[in-house]
Every structure is written in C-alpha cells, then in structure tokens.
Amino acid sequence: TKKITIAIDGFSSTGKSTVAKQLAKELGYVYVDTGAMYRAVSLYAMNNSMITENSFDREALIEKLPSVNLKFIFDENLGFAAIYLNGENVEEQIRKMDVSNHVSKVASVSEVREKLVSLQKIMGEEKGIVMDGRDIGTVVFPNAELKLFMTASPEERAGRRFKELEGKGEKVSYDEVFKNVVDRDHMDTTREDSPLVMAEDAIEIDNSFLTVEEQFDIILSLAKEKI
Ligand code: C5P
User: Fold this and answer.
1) I want to staple 188 with a disulfide (CB 3.0 to 4.6 A). Which of 14, 159, 195, 196 is the partner?
2) How far is the centre of ligand 1, averaged over its atoms, from the C-alpha of 184 (Å)?
3) Which residues have a Cβ under 8 Å from the Cβ of 128 and sit 6 or more positions away?
4) If you read the UniProt record, what top EC class would you report for this enzyme, in one word (predicted)?
C-alpha cells in the first residue's frame, strides 16, 4: 500500500479533529491539528499583551513571529501530539474560550499564515499524514490524494462545542458558544488571505445527522479507495 495525504477542512466545530484522529490511528498516519498552531500563536499574542479585549497590535506580533517556536510532541495519555509553545505544553490553554474569541483575527495575518503553512508543508513531506484546518486542501496540500470538507448546521456545531467545554468545567453559555462559532465562520470565509473555501476536488460530508461511528466508516472507506 502507498502512503497518501489526507486534507480535512471545514467550518468550526464540525468534528474534523475527531475523525482525523480516528483515521490517523487506523492508518498509522501522523495527525496534525493546524488549528492548534493558530491558537498557540494567538495565545502568544495574548500573553504578550499584543491582544487585549478590544485591540490587536498586528505589527508587534509580526515583529516577534521569529521568536514563536511551535512543536508537536506525542502524548501517550492523549493518544495524539500535544502542542508546545516555546517549550511549554499549551494544549489545554489554547482550547479555552478567550483564545477562540481572538484566533480568527490572528489567522487573518498573512505573515502568520506564511510561517505556519511552511511548517505544515514540511510536516507533510513524507505523506502518511492527516491534517485538519481551513486551507489544507486549497493551500497547504493542493495535491492531497483525499480532500474532505466537513459541514454541519451551526446549531448542531455550537451544541457539540458547548457540551465539550461544559464537560471540561469551563463557564460558558450556549449563546456565547453559538456566537463564537458563527463569528469565526464569517471571519474565516471572508478573510483575504486563504479564506475557508471548499477545494474543487473535495468531498463534502455533512455530519449533522451522522454518528461519529457512521462518519468514520464513510471516511475510512473513502481513504481506502485511494490507498
Ligand atoms: O480548528 P480550530 O477551530 O481549532 O481553528 C481555530 C481557528 O484557527 C479557526 O477559526 C481559523 O481562524 C484558524 N485556522 C486557520 N487555518 C487553519 C486552521 C485554523 O485559519 N488551517
């Protein structure tokens, strides 16, 4: 069997990472969560006062980008790679609501995208990779053998996200989560650099009415057709 590249794109909270992790495990591939990379850069900007409640100093972030060091290190307990920002495991911090509220602004900065996309391309050089994000099938791996585009209704997505955050003990309301999901979709689809758009050769999967298992079965057989 040959190794392929699997690109999974789609709107916020469509379950991209769930299926990407399952696939990587089943196929013995590397899984890369590119959203974690944009989130980690956002956390860096927040920790260094480049982002406050209502201001964003893009220039300061651009200037400091060379000192933002990102690494993925496999975590036995998690079963996937955790992200490290300048040597610190930030896997938990980057999932919090305040990071979600700022990440799409940071992801609209071309210099940030350039840096992260070039790291992503290097990670995929040897194929055997499942990468999820917003621009994987369009920008990072336009030649990926399998491209998936995940969708689900905003209500469904916000509901899943809300449960997940609530389960982690974070104090958020459904309305706040719903607003974040819709706002990010809007910013991600309308930004100038690498907007979220379905690649022409991607397969769209609406999982509003699919269970995690059903979705996995469908996607695994799509992958096997290519391998
Ligand atoms: O995937 P996740 O929801 O964690 O991504 C967080 C944010 O990072 C997205 O809303 C988007 O603004 C940005 N992102 C991106 N390109 C990617 C992955 C994520 O712009 N490839």
Assistant:
1) 196
2) 9
3) 3, 4, 27, 28, 29, 30
4) transferase
Sign of the CA dihedral with 75 first, then 77, 80, and 83 last: negative
pLDDT tens for each residue of 30-79: 999 999 999 999 999 999 999 998 899 999 999 999 999 999 999 999 99
Which residue, 81, 61, 60, is CA-closest to 72? Answer: 81
118 marked as binding residue: no
| Bridge-based pairing state of the strands 203-206 and 55-56 | unpaired
The verdict on whether residue 159 carries a ligand-binding annotation is: no
Are the beta carbons of 189 and 196 closer than 8 angstroms? yes
Please identify every stretch of the chain with a pLDDT value under 50, giving residue numbers as ranges.
none
What is the value of ipTM here, to two decimals? 0.99
**Which residues are near ligand 1 (CB < 6 Å)?**
12, 34-35, 38-39, 103-104, 107, 133-136, 184, 188
Kindly write down the DSSP assignment for every residue of 153-210, as one continuous string. -HHHHHHHHHHHHHHTT----HHHHHHHHHHHHHHHHH-SSS-----TTPEEEE-TT-
